[in-house]
Design goal:
single chain; alpha+beta; Phosphatase 2c, domain 1; five-stranded antiparallel β-sheet
């Protein structure tokens, strides 16, 4: 009997140069969970202008991972929407939400970049900036992407804490792939061309190939962290940076 392939996940989050300079915490967060044959993976970018955005990012990642462990492809979209609403309710009743109303969710603003994978089929779910990419190892000219979504201004994006978050939630199906990456906005400029039609091979391919070849998980995670925290990368983009890589 052929041995069933084991799903592997690696991730790294680093504090951006701007937050290092101001002695602020990293406001990105990521989480993943394997349960009942399902992989749930989420990264979130807490808004720099929101006082408790790290809490918002952590809450959405953990809630989605804990909630979707028994979802099926038939009900996954509804389950994702319910999980996001559950995360919003947690923040409404959070001790730091003084009004205990939706009005103060703005203080927890964060994006959602996530994936659900089960029985060879996957679904990206996405609110705001950041990006998702699914591909076959070694086939870098053919990929499935969920692009960033921004508002009327370049610095404006969307958050799950907004009252109209359901209008901003996007789904993208993916099949016939064996890898995916999720990333926050601090990384997308290194991975994709400005129009998101192509990948920047000089950055993306070395990372993908190294993660493929390095069998020691701690070494691979450390190398991913060091790549994001490289002085040149920090100069080019001072934002917090998160990547989550999955081998399916």
């Amino acid at each position: 009997m052929a041995q069933k392939k084991r799903i592997q996940v690696l991730s790294a989050s680093i504090k951006g140069a701007l937050h290092q300079m101001k002695n602020l915490p990293c406001q990105d967060f990521c989480a993943s969970k394997m349960s009942n044959g399902r992989l749930i993976a989420v990264v979130s970018d807490g808004a720099g202008s929101a006082r408790y955005s790290k809490i918002g990012a952590r809450t959405i990642c953990n809630t989605l991972c804990d909630t979707l462990t028994r979802s099926t492809h038939q009900n996954i979209k509804q389950d994702i929407m319910q999980a996001i609403e559950n995360a919003r309710q947690k923040l409404i009743w959070h001790r730091l939400n003084k009004s205990k109303t939706e009005k103060d969710l703005i203080n927890f603003s964060a994006t959602v970049v996530g994936a659900f994978y089960y029985q060879g089929k996957g679904l990206f779910f996405h609110i705001g900036d950041g990006a998702c990419i699914a591909f076959k190892q070694g086939c870098y000219d053919n990929f499935i992407i969920s692009e960033p979504a921004n508002g009327a201004f370049s610095c404006e994006t969307f958050f799950y804490t907004m009252s109209d978050w359901q209008d901003c939630l996007r789904f993208t199906d993916f099949t016939d792939v064996d890898r995916f990456m999720l990333m926050t906005d601090g990384v997308t400029g290194f991975v994709f061309s400005d129009d998101f039609y192509q990948i920047r091979q000089q950055f993306f391919i070395p990372i993908a190939e190294y993660l493929e070849q390095e069998k020691r998980k701690t070494y691979a995670a450390k190398a991913l962290y060091n790549t994001l925290n490289d002085s040149k990368a920090q100069r080019l983009n001072a934002d917090d940076k998160t990547i989550l890589w999955a081998k399916l």
